[in-house]
Design goal:
Protein name: DUF4307 domain-containing protein
Organism: Kineosporia babensis
Keywords: Membrane, Transmembrane, Transmembrane helix
CATH topology of the largest domain: Immunoglobulin-like
CATH class of the largest domain: Mainly Beta
Number of strands: 6
Largest sheet: 3 strands, antiparallel
Pfam family, one: DUF4307
Helix content: 25-40%
Number of helices: 2
CATH architecture of the largest domain: Sandwich
Structural class: alpha+beta
Number of domains: 2
InterPro entries: DUF4307 (IPR025443)
Length: 129
């Protein structure tokens, strides 16, 4: 059977529009690149921290030590440090302004006055200032 006979019987085969396929692939690549940029650069936290230790000195104070890393050109941050009792109720709180060193890292030790004896102390959050 010839191609002409097949085309008469079944119709011409559909051809893929190459320009449309290329346009769709370009748009898809742009979306993937934009998402990757957003995840790695725009949405990156400017401040990260990690609790290091705490020491309950008395029924009226706790000492909290934490490490801080400033990212993306942030020069300082404000961290909120909490003291909690055995029921996980806040018994002390202090906002601390922190400035990073040359590479943006710093270890901070903060003494928090408490209204009753604390069982733990921790950083609840830091924001670039």
């Amino acid at each position: 059977m010839s191609d002409t006979h097949l085309h008469e019987r079944y119709g011409k085969p559909r051809t893929v529009n190459r320009r449309l396929v290329i346009a769709v692939l370009v748009v898809l690549a742009a979306v993937v690149l934009a998402f990757t940029y957003w995840v790695t650069v725009i949405d990156r936290d400017k401040v990260t921290w990690q609790d290091h230790s705490f020491d309950v000195r008395s029924a009226s104070e706790v000492v909290v030590t934490f490490d801080l890393q400033l990212h993306a050109g942030a020069e300082r941050a404000v961290c909120t440090v909490h003291a909690l009792n055995s029921l996980n109720t806040e018994v002390g709180r202090q906002d601390v302004e922190v400035e990073g060193d040359a590479d943006g890292r710093v270890r901070m030790t903060v003494t928090i006055p408490t209204s009753e004896e604390a069982t733990t102390g921790l950083v609840s959050g830091c924001l670039a200032a």
